Amino acid sequence: MGIISEDMTNKQKYREFCKIEKNIPIFSKDWWLDSVCGEDNWDVALVEKGSKIIASMPFFETRKFFLKMILMPKLTKTMGPYIIYPERQRYQEKLSYEKDIMNKLIDQLPDVDFFFQHFHYSITNWLPYYWRGFKQTTRYTYIIEDLSNLNDVFSNFSYSKRKNIKRAEDLLTVKFDLPAKNFYEHHKMTLAKQNKFINYSYSLFKRIYDSGYMHNSARTIYAEDGQGNIHSALFIIWDDNSAYDLISTIDPDFRNSGSASLLIREAIKMVSTVTKKFDFEGSMEESVENSFRQFGAVQKPYFRIIKFKNKFIKLLYDVYKE
After folding, report:
1. Of 11, 32, 78, 269, which is most buried with the most CB atoms under 10 A?
2. Structure pTM?
3. Residues 70, 61: contact at Cβ < 8 Å?
4. Which CATH number fits domain 147-275: 3.40.630.30, 3.90.180.10, 3.90.1720.10, 3.30.1490.100?
5. How would you label 259-280 residue by residue, b for 16+ Cβ within 10 Å and e otherwise?
């Protein structure tokens, strides 16, 4: 168990906090931030009560040209505040508590030209940020909320998904632990077939892959035919509360084989032994949303929070809005 003392820096305290507080989402854990930001490129705001941390808010600070910005790191879906609530707290007390905590976190953020974060969907109150000049856009992800009964989970799949899975079972073999380089090259190749470019580096993916495997929080899963062709692959990560479909790669030459649906089912089987939920890492694209919904997933709103100093900085929002 980590020990937190007054002479530590916020980051040192947070590393110890991550050892003892198991409900912190994976995207806010210290080892994840080291992987996606670099050990020296992130920091954290903390609220303490006595010798205990009761709230945290990590952030990635960077520079673009002459601008100081807090942004979302690559392949990191959510950040924002993490709050520990007192037991048996009444609703009006909860709102007051959140206002106090969030203001204390905001006060510790560096003075930047542009702020951009996605908050985890567990944060349902962003009003204190509004009062401090932040703006919000609602986004959506899709969650299977209970993996304890897989029969119930799979019975909620649509008829078309079950049909796809049945077809894929006759054609493909599901395998695990595709090496990082093979996964990356497959994703790069499948995007190139669609005249698209991969938007993250191999070195970044390798750091996440290695750290995820080292912390028993990540795994690749893929579907291969008898000729050795990989039809699709997933990179799945998880924490104590949820698994996340972080990266999906589907070869368009085999799009109709049903491999993607088969892999989702097998990934859910795999993570049901280590966590409670499955997060599809939702997309705002209509066709993708329809696919997630057919797995019986429930829509969950989450907040995109931004703040910019002036109208010129506001133009940067278009660069980071997706």
Report:
1. 32
2. 0.93
3. yes
4. 3.40.630.30
5. bbbbbbbbbbebbbeebbbbbb
**How many Å apart are CA 315 and CA 34, to the nearest integer?**
29
What is the sign, positive or negative, of the torsion defined by CA atoms of 203, 209, 230, 151?
A: negative
Compute CA 170 distance to the chain's CA centroid, rounded to the nearest angstrom: 33
For the domain made up of 10-139+302-320, give the CATH fold.
Answer: Aminopeptidase (3.40.630)
Can you tell me the distance from the alpha carbon of 308 to that of 316, in angstroms, rounded to the nearest whole number? 9
The neighbouring-strand residues paired with 125 are: none
What is the reported pLDDT for 1?
41
Q: With beta carbons less than 8 A apart as the criterion, state whether 140 and 227 touch.
A: no
Quote the pLDDT of residue 51.
85
Q: For residue 290, what pLDDT is reported?
A: 81
Q: Name every residue whose Cβ is closer than 8 Å to that of residue 183 and which is 6 or more positions away in sequence.
A: 205, 209, 220, 222, 233, 235, 247, 249
Q: Provide the pLDDT for residue 285.
A: 74
Maximal C-alpha separation, the chain: 62
Which parts of the chain register pLDDT below 70?
A: 1-4, 282-283, 316-322
Map out the domains of the chain as residue ranges.
10-139+302-320, 147-275
What is the spatial distance between Cα 117 and Cα 304, in angstroms, rounded to a whole number?
6
Identical fold, 10-139+302-320 and 147-275 = yes
Give 124-155 as a DSSP string: ---HHHHHTT-EEEEEEEEEE---S-HHHHHH
Q: Please report the pLDDT score of residue 189 as a whole number.
A: 97
pLDDT at 118: 97
Q: Token match 């491999």: residue?
A: 259
Amino acid code (one letter) for 223: A
